[in-house]
Amino acid sequence: MHLHLLLSVLASATAVLAHKHHSRDLVLSDNDTSPLVKRDVQAGGACGTQANNAVCAAGLCCSDTGVCGTGGGFCTAPACQLSAGPACDGNQTPAGADTSNVPRPLFGSIPYGVDISHCSVNGKVAITFDDGPYLYTAALLDILKNNNVTATFFVVGNNGAKGMINNPATGYPATLRRMIADGHQIGSHTWSHQDLSLITAQQRRDQIVKNEIALNDVLGVIPTYLRPPYTHWTQDGLNDLKSFGYHVLNYDIDTRDWQGDYNVAETTYSTILSQHSPSSSSWISLEHDIYNTTVHMFAQYIIDAARRLNYQLVTVGECLGDPASNWYRNTTTGQPVDMNVLRANVANGGSSNGSGSTGTSTSTLTQASTTSTRSTASKTTTHTLLATALAVNGNTGANTTTTKARTSTAASATASSTSKSGGTRSVVGAGMGVAVVALIFAAFL
Ligand SMILES: *[C@@H]1O[C@H](CO)[C@@H](O)[C@H](O)[C@H]1NC(C)=O
Ligand SMILES: *[C@@H]1O[C@H](CO)[C@@H](O)[C@H](O)[C@H]1NC(C)=O
Ligand SMILES: *[C@@H]1O[C@H](CO)[C@@H](O)[C@H](O)[C@H]1NC(C)=O
Ligand SMILES: *[C@@H]1O[C@H](CO)[C@@H](O)[C@H](O)[C@H]1NC(C)=O
Ligand SMILES: *[C@@H]1O[C@H](CO)[C@@H](O)[C@H](O)[C@H]1NC(C)=O
Ligand SMILES: *[C@@H]1O[C@H](CO)[C@@H](O)[C@H](O)[C@H]1NC(C)=O
Ligand SMILES: [Zn+2]
């Protein structure tokens, strides 16, 4: 075993432990006065595992501490107890056509329902951003555009009480359409970031399908790439993902940006790239666009470092050699999409039938996809209000919820080495999902 690999394993194990013990959710104060912040309101009544699985009344959520209520502190995924809180983020259903009966032929040459941790086209780095869209995602799109870089976004439909991604009031539909217009790839990271290995089969399927409904409502297509939250799954989960026609995307560089130590993140990333030759290696790197520093500092670093080391930045599909039409599924035919139609959909600010909840955000989209200056300006109001709320309240207030769903990471903290023509590589952090859940209880609703 290479020393490098050994060190990586130790560093990864340390990271998992550190996360388990130091994770802290960012919580807005209950007495915040911003109209954008959905306040916690305790309704009373014990629920969930703390109360013989008692279920809260309709419209209420069950916090991880077993109390019924509304607001981010009660409703946010994954802490909200799905089986006891009817209004948990994860139990909400987006508007839009049901996609569960879309045909799912397994087209293309990339395998479905199996762990894909590595790219296959040498000289490429696919940077991937999980858990958004969120407050900083539009700014990240500006940064990527300024650098002429494309990336992949594994989006979560309704998490951290951020609002459903197909609700135009959140601004997220326009951001998602701009991703397509700018040449990025969108994959699913499920509806509400539950650990797929810890929920029922029905809940697992709901997590897959609800995110499809929301994405189809915004884009008129559904993705064929999915990264399970925490990169945790069971064989049943993989079988489901295959039957729903998904490539299961892992990663082989874990920058652990969520830990907030960007010196470590930078070293992790550039060490791996510099110790391998672009002529015989390619990489899938994990980042999260829900962190301001990842967007405003680290994104530029990972772009510059990859280019300095002669790698080209591409989407996940490109680094697997998969044509763009295969990254999405036509919800009418089940077949690969016509990218010209998809581009026209997003340019028109609507989905394939030009209706649905997409209509009201057309003007935002037009600004976003035609002039980036206008796009930035159009986001400023919301961004500033929320940023102010965060700055004022970020370190105060409500309960620090623990991510109890994250107790088994150490067991999966296995690293492996795989060889492919051209050399041996180390796998850092693959399969060690990170509990990155922005419990920033700002709702746009
Ligand atoms: C936070 O803690 C307070 C005091 O223990 C409790 O009344 C309230 O219900 C808790 N909120 C949540 C979301 O668990
Ligand atoms: C932007 O990137 C594309 C794809 O890598 C490349 O073909 C094009 O020349 C680049 N444009 C500029 C201005 O660098
Ligand atoms: C989906 O298929 C239908 C029927 O062939 C076609 O009219 C439509 O343009 C396709 N949409 C996309 C995005 O490929
Ligand atoms: C078509 O329009 C209906 C009605 O507004 C909407 O519910 C549905 O999601 C749309 N279908 C697609 C594929 O966008
Ligand atoms: C995000 O980072 C930028 C650049 O450092 C800073 O100007 C901005 O205030 C930050 N926003 C928040 C909400 O912290
Ligand atoms: C919340 O209210 C308390 C008591 O009025 C006050 O001291 C505190 O500064 C407030 N917090 C915020 C974030 O406004
Ligand atoms: Zn995630």
Percent strand: 5-15%
Distance between the termini: 52 Å
Classified by CATH, the class of the domain at 115-347 is Alpha Beta
CATH structural fold name of the domain at 115-347: TIM Barrel
Largest sheet: 6 strands, parallel
Rg calculated over all Cα atoms: 21 Å
Following the backbone from N to C, one meets helices and strands in this order, namely: HEEEHEEHEHEHEEHEEHEHEHEHHHEE
- Supply the CATH superfamily name of the domain at 115-347: Glycoside hydrolase/deacetylase
Q: Using the 3D structure, state the CATH architecture of the domain at 115-347.
A: Alpha-Beta Barrel
Number of helix segments? Answer: 12
Number of E-type strands:
16
Protein name: Chitin deacetylase
Disulfide bonds: 47-62, 56-68, 61-75
Biased composition (Low complexity): 358-379
Domain Chitin-binding type-1: 44-90
Quick structural summary:
The protein has 445 residues and is of the alpha/beta class. The protein is built from twelve helices and 16 strands.
Explained architecture:
This protein has 445 residues and is α/β, with parallel strands linked by helices. It has a domain at 115-347: Alpha-Beta Barrel (TIM Barrel). The chain contains twelve helices and 16 strands. Strands 5, 6, 7, 11, 12 and 13 form a six-stranded parallel beta sheet that branches. Strands 1-3-2 form a three-stranded antiparallel beta sheet. Helix 3 links the parallel strand 5 and strand 6. Residues 1-37 and 351-445 have low confidence and may be disordered. The structure holds 2-acetamido-2-deoxy-beta-D-glucopyranose (NAG) (6 copies) and zinc ion. Zinc ion (ZN) binds next to loops.
